[in-house]
Amino acid sequence: MIRDDGWARHSVWEHSAAVRDLYARRARWEAEEMTCAAQAAELLAPRVRPGETVLDAGCGSGYLWHSLRLRGIPAEYHGIDASKTLIGIGRQHLPAFGLPPERLRALRIEDLDGAVDHVVCMNVISNLDNHHRPLERLCEVARRTLVLRESLGAGSRYTYVVDEHLDDGARLKVHVNRYDLGEVTDLIASHGFTPRVVVDRRTGGEPEMVIGHPHWWTFVVAER
After folding, report:
1. Which tens digit of pLDDT belongs to each residue from 51-62?
2. pTM over 0.90
3. 6-223 sits in which CATH class?
4. 61 SS3 class
């Protein structure tokens, strides 16, 4: 029998009660603001004009909205995420903070099309099989600015590992990749951007262990 639910059945994001609880608390503004969300909002702040659009690609439950609204950034926020569950959490809780539910959509980056003024993507592409196609799609969609935070460094490292932090009975693998910083910035530049590397405030450029594996978090801010 052929089914069409393979992505959800094999996605680590759909098999973690702990993640669902955390993302719900973030959406309800009950959890501490993520340092990376605060830094992304501050990087965007001087670049966003009133009424411009910001797309949060891989938004989880859309909690970056809080970081934008608390800083008075005059953006029309939209969020997409491949996880229908996490999008549902955001649609349930964020309208209480002024975000219309239709601004959050269950959508993979690879299926994205259209145009927005600014794109933010944090902690997403490092968990995909490779960066080329999704990063290219984000570059094509962004008219003015791309703010990227991923695991980047000198040389690429590709790993595909079991996530040991999932619900009981779920034994699924996830990509934990580090991409070559020069290769990433070259790809961004080839789409007409001028990329600039910014040290990640949370980690100070040092590797951080996430699900037992090192991540070299780095911001890239790119402007046309």
Report:
1. 999 999 999 999
2. yes
3. alpha beta
4. coil
